[in-house]
Amino acid sequence: MDALNYNPSASVDDGTCIYPGPCDEFDGSAFAPNAFTPNNDGLNDGWRVLTETDCWNKWELIIYNRWGQVVYEMDDPSQVWDGSFRDGSHYVSDGVYAYTLRAVAWNLGSIEITGMITVLR
Q1: Residues with Cβ within 8 Å of residue 39, at least 6 apart in sequence
Q2: Which candidate, 53, 58, 55, places its Cα nearest to that of 20?
Q3: Claim: this prediction has a pTM higher than 0.90
């Protein structure tokens, strides 16, 4: 009762307390929006996959144009694509871009997701 670090979700195992981590029950869910509007109006100016960013061990997301040229790469799930071409001062044209995500979660196997992103200004 006098403990200052009481955690009701902790369990006892072998006489030591084990606190569940934030990724112990992570199911690998990741939602990739299919469009964004990088026009600097403050609304939907960036694109990223929505997921628990701390629960991934490996993250590789590559965005391609219609000719298969790499236009952007991410190695962290918290990264945001602003519509720039290879993180430079040039921006991609309006249109549809493909992406491939290959990732490994801390408590799961690997995943591979492909999809399309529409850039609208």
Answers
A1: 45, 121
A2: 55
A3: no
